[in-house]
Amino acid sequence: MIHTDFIRYLKGVGPKKEEIFNKIGIHTLDDLLHYYPFRYEDRRNFKKIKDIKENEFCVIKAKILARNLKKMPYFMRAKRVKNILEIAISDDTAVINCTWFNQGYLYDKMNISDTLIVYGKPRMYDGKLKLIAPEFEMFEEGEDSLNLGRIVGIYSATQNLGQKFIRKTISLALENLDAQTRDSLPFDVRREKKFPNIVQSFKGIHFPQSFEEAEKSRERFIFEELFFSQILVYLRKARHRSQVADSFSAGPKLIEKLKQNLKFSLTASQEKVLSEILNDLAKTYPMHRLLQGDVGCGKTVVAAFAFACAVSSGFQAAFMVPTEILAYQHRETFKSLFRGFGYRIEVLVASLAKGEIERIHKEISEGKIDIVIGTHALISDEVIFKNLRFVAIDEQHKFGVAQRALLPKKGVNPHYLIMSATPIPRSLALSLYGDLDLSVITELPLGRIVPKTMWVTEKKRQWVYDFIEEKISKGRQVYIIYPIIEENEDEDLRSLETMYDNLKSRFSKFKLGMFHGQLAPKNKLSVIDEFRKGGINILVSTTVVEVGVNVENATVMVVENPERFGLAQLHQLRGRIQRSNYEPYFILLSAEEVSEEVSQRLKALQDSNDGFKISEEDLILRGPGDFFGQMQHGLPELKIANPLRDLELLKEARAFAYKIIKSDPELHKLEHRFIRERIEALSAELKDSFSLLEEKA
Asked: Residue 223 and residue 219: Cα distance in Å, rounded?
């Protein structure tokens, strides 16, 4: 940490600006200094308009000659263009036109004779070079050295927080630093990696003298984020191993009896993972294992063996899932798998009657219920287990990091299994989940057919409808997925409610059902039950079907506006139609024109059914964001590092972290004191790790 002074104390930052900064996560000077540029512009030499070339990025300084704002009539807004702003700019060598879509508010900010700094990639339209939606800044005479004549950092900005103000504010924050500012990255690490110290690094990343300096400073901060994430991972693992847990005494007879209840044989991959889990459950410290596997690979079946081990050893087990539909589905699965075992299995969800919830709470506390499957209702204060020793969380990414941490606290160091259908490459998973042991189911059950993925545009809508009709006539069922439930004036998206009426008219000889998150729980169960029994031919839904809706006869899914969904989410949806031996079809129905990024995403989905490749591509496309925070409770947000892109740095950071924790697990050494302070600031939970480790030592 550098300091914790609030940003409001900087010159020029009043209450309104402070509020805007707070909205983008900047509260302190430390937050501000870690608000990094996402790219740089070389403003040491501007390009002349006469010298610019098609498809080559350029920075131009030019005056506005003319401007025009065209408001599009309503009937012409099919492509979501409500207005077009065009300006002509000149630098005395030539003239070029710039165009912005749906940014009419810029018209009043761009006056004739104003000077702009424009950044973009010229493209050829109607035989002329144009700049489409370029980035820009207003230029004023006497512009200071932060914005001109140098390499300039470009930041993610908002309408009320411009580039120049961000640079000025960061410059003022840098003035608060001095050569004695503490650097939590150890000197030995910096020396070996040839990193500049913290003050030089902040100056180098925000106001570099060269691109080489900017790159080295960026590398330092990327490494630093990854280094501390790995320190936290190793501390968590040490904390887990210091705990004492009850071991489960499940013999081969139990496992064999459970296998006899299956309607199929486990795949080789399932057998391997089962062996890993059973070995963990026999140990006297708690299992902390991540079970990864693509949609439909049979993770729940493998988890069922762990539940049986817990209950047969005299303990209770809990299974937390993200939706009520999934909770009821798992109950039916478990009832089938545990035929003849005599287990008491209950579902605990918020929609149950008050009296029913109170009964279940009472029986859980008395130990009368062996396995409870539920949603967030499981982590309410009223739920008190008698002897909870096994916890599983399904679709763990659907829960907040704090929520995932609450359920294990209901027991005494319970064995802990988290399950995810969003697999990530093993080398990356070992670093992200370093405190968890990793199991991966790599194959699907025999007979499953990979869906054929088709990406079509609006002009083929009639073909899509004909295709749906053909498949229903052959006895199959269909999902049609929409991104929103109701119409929204600000977004030109097809909504579920509007399209439902249109679809009922188009498919009048078939039965349609509507399914979304705002339905009452009883109605949700009723609709899904009817769909499962074949009473509904077409289920019109939002992504609520992404988790837990398994209907083997539903083999066609159409996703409207797929550009609004992430890759991993689309892949999860595709898994819903991969549940039988019938040929499945996954159809993406997009607008005629989509961005390059959307095109890349949809093509990736069309080209691959491999969940590992899909998640890798998803990570590349969406960048770092809160990747670590979503993956693991207690890990910091990544502001600049991207674990996949920076995999080599991640491996190095992991090695340094391991070396330090191995030699100094309590971080007592003088040279590690700033690491310990940083860790305590990052994670209140792991602050206790030091005292636990010291007690065990």
From this structure: 6
Helix, strand and coil content of the chain, in percent to the nearest 5, comes to 45, 20, 35
Encode pLDDT of 655-666 as tens digits.
Answer: 999 999 988 888
Q: Which residues contact 47 (CB under 8 A, 6 or more apart)?
A: 58, 59, 60
The per-residue pLDDT of the chain, averaged, comes to 86
Q: What is the CATH number of the domain that holds 493?
A: 3.40.50.300
Q: What does the pLDDT read at residue 449? A: 84
Q: Where are the beta strands (DSSP E) in 394-444?
A: 415-420, 437-441
Instruction: Dig out the tokens for 46 from the structure.
Output: 């501007």
pLDDT of residue 143: 62
Question: Cβ neighbours of residue 274 under 8 Å, at least 6 residues apart?
Answer: 255, 266, 302, 305
DSSP 63: E
The 10 Å CB-count burial string (b at 16+, else e) for 264-276 is: eebbebbeebbeb
Q: Please report the pLDDT score of residue 626 as a whole number.
A: 46
Helices H, strands E: what count in the chain? 23, 22
Residue 613 lies in a domain: no
Domain count, the chain: 4
> Are 366 and 431 in the same domain?
yes
* 185 and 282 assigned to the same domain: no
Residue range(s) defining the domain that contains residue 595: 452-608
> Is 50 exceeded by the pLDDT of residue 2?
no
Identify the pLDDT of residue 633. 46
Is there a single domain that holds both residue 265 and residue 364? yes
Query: Dihedrals φ, ψ of 153, to 5°?
Result: -75, 140
